[in-house]
Structure formats: structure tokens, C-alpha cells
Amino acid sequence: MRSTPLLRPSSCLLSAALAVGLWGCTVQYAPPAMYYVPPDALSGDAAPSDAAAADLGGAEAGTADAGNQELPASDAIKADTAPADVASGQTCADRCTKPFTSTKPCQCTWDCAKYGTCCPDWVAVCHPQDNLDWYSPPAGACSQPGDWVKVKSNPDGDTIHLQELDSTGYHLAVRFLLVDTAETTTAECMSAEAKKATWDSLVKSSLSVCLVAEPGGEDKDMYGRLLRYVYVKDPALAKPIQLNLRLLRLGLGRVLYPFAAGNSLEKLALETMAQAKVDNLGGWGKCGWVQPK
């Protein structure tokens, strides 16, 4: 979820003008009027939105009491892939290595995914070797029991709270790298679905995740949340898969710029998002998304 800078309150009771009830206590602070701070910016637990609960038939997604629901495979919800239209130039045939061409109706450069201008067959023609459905951990990662940590809850699709507490007594928060899902606090289109899909995959993984940092990247964001690639165990595949890219593949989130720029998996994330758009999955079909946020 998007967020804007503001310091986290150091305790549950501070003298100030605005009171907001979170996690069973009252946090008081007076943010500047121009700033909005979503609850997931703070470590701790957040109650699921009414929309998310209704989407689950009354069960609360994002808490340890929710039931185990199946995260759909791409094929299970995929719409018909839009065919390339060679006659009108809607194809990347013979164009994969060529620069932006203003006279063409669609593009085949890496920037096309950022601006929503890719030809329908960009991934299939220019990057057929890449597996966009499942991404495994780097060699040696997530292979030992000690590599896995327990999850307590998820306030939205791209944030989780761990069982482990930080030095101030809050549950450690983890912000997914690369992907941005819709805001649950304002019930944006696709927010409940993204939150539920993340929780379902956590349940299938026995509420355990393996966290991998971006090589040479920032360890935490401005709110103190860990910035990580999040891997879950998938019983059907009998191996860990990355949840960040999986959310993009299912159309449940978009690549987050400018923060994704320069990440080791940026290009793979752009491919994955572009294919979800071509397949008309998730928010690309339901919410009218046209490009990353």
C-alpha cells in the first residue's frame, strides 16, 4: 500500500489533538493536514475491513482464525489472451531489440510495461524463456527450518505482521518489495481480494514465511518495516514460491514505482505485470487499471 512520511507514535497514549483506535489501545497524534498514514504503516495488528470480511462470507481474512482457502492458479482465472494483430502493427514480431517507435500503436521496450503500452505478445515474443507463474528462492535460501518465521496477521495484500515483537513491543511489520496492492483502508477496488489471496497463501504455508532482502538494498522503509521478498510453501508444488511476484501475476497488485527501480527483479516484475494485464486478470479486468501507480 502507498504511504506518506510520518513518525510512528512511540506509545499508545500521547498528548495531541487526534485520537485513532488501533490494536486495542488508543494512539494519539497530530499529523500535518497534508499527510495520510494508513494503519499498515505501523507495526502491530489491524482489524480487517468490513469489505474484506464480507468477501470471505463473514470470516476475517488476515488473522490466525481464518480458514484455508485456495490461492487460484493463473490458469484457473485467466481470461483469453489478447491475440497479436499483425496487420495493424499490434505485435512485437521483429521488434524486440528495436527502440520506441512513435508511429506504432504499441511498444516492445522495457518501458512499455511502465506506461501500459506493450503489444499483447510482448512477453510471449520477446521473453518466452521466463517462467512468470512461479518464482523460487535464490540458491541456498529458504532451505533450512531456521530460515522460516511465523506470521500473525496481514492488514492488506502487501504487508504482514510477524509473531516476533520489536524493541517497542509492536509486532514486526514486513512490507513486500516491488508490489503495491490496493488500499484496504479506503476499500479500493481489488483491496479485499488481494488481502484474502495473501492470507490464503500464508495459511497454506502454515503461517510461516521465508524473508529475503534485496541484495544491496534498503533493509527498512521510513516506518521501520522490513523490506523483503516473501516466500511461502506451496503444497501443490512441493516447493517455496515468491508471493510478491505471484500477486502481480494474478493481477492483484502493480509494480510500485519509483521504489522498484533498480531492483534485481524489476524486469521480471514488469513482465509478470504486463502478462497479467494481457490476460485481463484481477484489477486489470475488474478495476480498469491501465498502468502502474
Explain how this protein is built:
With 293 residues, the chain is an alpha+beta fold. It has a domain at 40-70 and 135-264 and 273-286: OB fold (Dihydrolipoamide Acetyltransferase, E2P) (Beta Barrel). The protein has eight helices and ten strands. The chain has helices at 50-55, 74-77, 111-115, 122-126, 191-204, 243-249, 266-278, 282-286; strands at 18-22, 25-29, 148-156, 159-165, 171-176, 179-180, 208-212, 226-234, 239-242, 254-255. A five-stranded mixed β-barrel has the order 3-4-5-8-7. The chain has a two-stranded antiparallel ribbon with strand order 1-2. Strand 4 and strand 5 (171-176) form a beta hairpin. The termini are close together. The model is unreliable at 3-82 (pLDDT under 50).
Summarize the structure.
The protein has 293 residues and is α+β, with helices and mostly antiparallel strands. It has helices spanning 50-55, 74-77, 111-115, 122-126, 191-204, 243-249, 266-278, 282-286, and strands at residues 18-22, 25-29, 148-156, 159-165, 171-176, 179-180, 208-212, 226-234, 239-242, 254-255.
